[in-house]
Amino acid sequence: MASIYSVAQYLLFIIIVTVLVKPLGGYVERVFSGKRTALDRFLLPLEKFIYRITRVDPAAEMTFPHYATCFVLFGLFSTLLLYAILRAQRFLPWFWPAYQITPLTPDLAFNTAVSFSTTTTWQAYAGENTMSYFSQMAGLCAQNFLAGAAGLAVGMAFIRGLARQVCDTLGNFWVDLVRALLWVLVPGSLVGALLLVGQGVPMNFHHYAVVTTVEGAKQVIPQGPVAALEIIKNLGTNGGGFFNANGAHPYENPTPLSNFLEMLAIVLLPAALTNTFGRMVGQPRQGRLFYYVMLFLFICGLLFVHGFEQRGSPHAGNVDFRSSQAQSGGNMEGKEVRFGIAGTALAAVVTSNTATGSYNAMHDSFSSLGGMVLLLNMLLGELVFGGLGSGLYSMVMAAAIAVFLGGLMVGRTPEYLGKKIGPAENKMIVLYALAAPLVILPLTAIAVSTSAGLSGLTTNSGPHGFTEILFAYTSSFANNGQSFAGLSANTPFYNLTTALAMIVGRFGLAIPALALAALFGRQRNTPASSGTLPTHHFVFGLLLTACLTTIAALSYLPGLALGPILERLQLGN
């Protein structure tokens, strides 16, 4: 049973997110619609200066091919620039050979460059033992801003396309990118970083401290600009961390309050985009329906993870798993005592539902079913809030499938937002829906059937080892970045194959989404009639939820049966 503290923490989190969805969603809509905001006085001159030196015409709009090309080329340039920084790290400032002892081999540098430029931030290395301060700030932190802003730009172009009529353009990628940076990510990061510094998160460029412990041993305590990287990795739905221990490290996440603030930073913008969507398409109830479906799935995941972890292992004898004032109870292996079951479950569900792998516990130590919930959250497409833009267009794609199925039931041409879903639209939807299983499952199969893949299972084998591999490719494709850390992934095989999954997960989903938005934008709205399927009512919410779970089950149930389900059955009752 959940304690009063756990229930209060969950309710407070849900209430704060729900209350802020409308004002924050309205702010984002004003930013990307060119309406006045409170920050215009300070940021408009800077925006004009950026356009002037980059020779960008803010009034020039782009068609789908032009917008998608800019997005892909920006991602490619960002990857190459970060790769160059990482490979030249030892020649750049703030590199200390005594502490940065993990070699940045070509395959590891390539994997890391792809990871951060796609907002995956999959880390096959220990942060404090690998990256210099320069690499952390000029490389990784900068990409957290740029890649997050690019993802938000694509999300806004997607909404813009759905909202327009008889129009071939989706906006201007460079304008959307600059506005996402200046009006959204930079102000949010400044405020969030100050809050984290107030909680004790370091923000300095001091040399690593070497101290003598009470036992007389020497210990190296890393320093660094932690707060700057910490807030944008959450706000930009990037993930990763300055330290190997990630969000569980007392420098990255020192208090229960900092844990709560970081979870809010991850969720607020993606959740608010449902309101932005409703405003921009002129149908606020559509946005509210999406938010309620997301919230329902979020609460289900939270309850399941809390229940599975609070129960503990059925084979641990003479152990008191009950929650009390003296202990958190439950399965505390791999979890921080200062967060307990509640803070850990909240972080696990938030990060697996969004594109942010900034977890604060060892997910490899979760119960088999608790870990399966996290895996399912990513396999669903991270549409429960999701990333900056990616969660929303995943939900819209799922809604389009639900509309198509509903149209078949009533014998009418499927329509969504007054636009018909014809053969061309269906092709983009199917391409989007098939991308994940066509990448995740084959890569998992190759890994579990080759010596190069199996060599990464240095800790576990059997069903749990299978889950570790499936989780790795799912996390990479979902641009999430968290892992079951029992998998030793710093090998050429995993560095290259997970990078492939990241690339397809970033561009293989965004491009069909933009194409669908362009197809919708060329149509004229069809007035609703008595035969039109309402897509803002409770019944459609049920259809959408059923459609989501059915698609995930049909695609991944065999994989789940070989992994977490089989592991749980082997435990018995």
UniProtKB/TrEMBL annotation:
Pfam families recorded: KdpA (PF03814)
Entry membrane topology: Multi-pass membrane protein
Species of the source: Candidatus Sulfotelmatobacter kueseliae
GO cellular component, one term: plasma membrane
Main location: membrane
Gene name of this polypeptide: kdpA
Signal sequence region: none
Role played: Part of the high-affinity ATP-driven potassium transport (or Kdp) system, which catalyzes the hydrolysis of ATP coupled with the electrogenic transport of potassium into the cytoplasm. This subunit binds the extracellular potassium ions and delivers the ions to the membrane domain of KdpB through an intramembrane tunnel.
GO MF entry, a single one: P-type potassium transmembrane transporter activity
Assembly behavior: The system is composed of three essential subunits: KdpA, KdpB and KdpC.
Keywords assigned: Cell membrane, Hydrolase, Ion transport, Membrane, Potassium, Potassium transport, Transmembrane, Transmembrane helix, Transport
Family: Belongs to the KdpA family.
Descriptive protein name: Potassium-transporting ATPase potassium-binding subunit
TM regions (residue ranges): 7-25, 64-86, 137-159, 180-198, 260-277, 289-308, 339-359, 366-385, 391-410, 430-454, 493-517, 538-557
Highest taxon above the source species: Bacteria
Keyword Membrane: yes
Localization (cell): Cell membrane
